[in-house]
What we know:
Distance between the termini: 29 Å
Strand content: under 5%
Binding site for [4Fe-4S] cluster: 189, 196, 199, 205
Number of domains: 2
CATH superfamily of the largest domain: Helix-hairpin-Helix base-excision DNA repair enzymes (C-terminal)
EC number: 4.2.99.18
Helix content: 55-70%
CATH class of the largest domain: Mainly Alpha
Shape: elongated
GO molecular function, one term: 4 iron, 4 sulfur cluster binding
CATH topology of the largest domain: Endonuclease Iii, domain 2
Radius of gyration: 19 Å
CATH architecture of the largest domain: Orthogonal Bundle
Family: Belongs to the Nth/MutY family.
Cofactor: [4Fe-4S] cluster
Largest sheet: none
Mean pLDDT: 93
Amino acid sequence: xxxxxxxxxxxxxxxxxxxxxxxxxxxxxxxxxxxxxxxxxxxxxxxxxxxxxxxxxxxxxxxxxxxxxxxxxxxxxxxxxxxxxxxxxxxxxxxxxxxxxxxxxxxxxxxxxxxxxxxxxxxxxxxxxxxxxxxxxxxxxxxxxxxxxxxxxxxxxxxxxxxxxxxxxxxxxxxxxxxxxxxxxxxxxxxxxxxxxxxxxxxxxxxxxxxxxxxxxxxx
Length: 220
């Protein structure tokens, strides 16, 4: 099977098993809420972030509120997300920059986004894809792990993985590849105990096939 046919089969299987519609796992009602939530999501689960932001966005109802809060107070509000000191510092600095440099609007250009405190390419691409419908590839832990298992990239560096996937994935799959792979990573290809026996992508998974061969070899 050629690489193109193999990739097409992988994408078709993802489409068959998971919705094609874009699904953002972080709860938000507007662009700046998604920006804050994505900053909080670093080294934290989406479920935990959603628990925190449920009350957080009731307390802070505008970019201005976040820009003016004392860092120590915000730290306590977001403490359970981990790395709360850096996150609080970045959120405040980010919101101040939005007010001063962008008239209180979240920019769409990736160059402008990554200049904001606490915003890397992952966060920038979440905003571009989910808010502005700009084809973007978000490399989170699921995309990193599963893309390597499928042999779509040899790298560990998220930026290198992003550019590898941009080269081979059709643009119409860029955004939904992320959401579908997250769903797959949560339901089947979990980090600690992947359910390889249930995985429809097993024939294309280098790690899964090697593990299966080891099991068969031990059974002989």
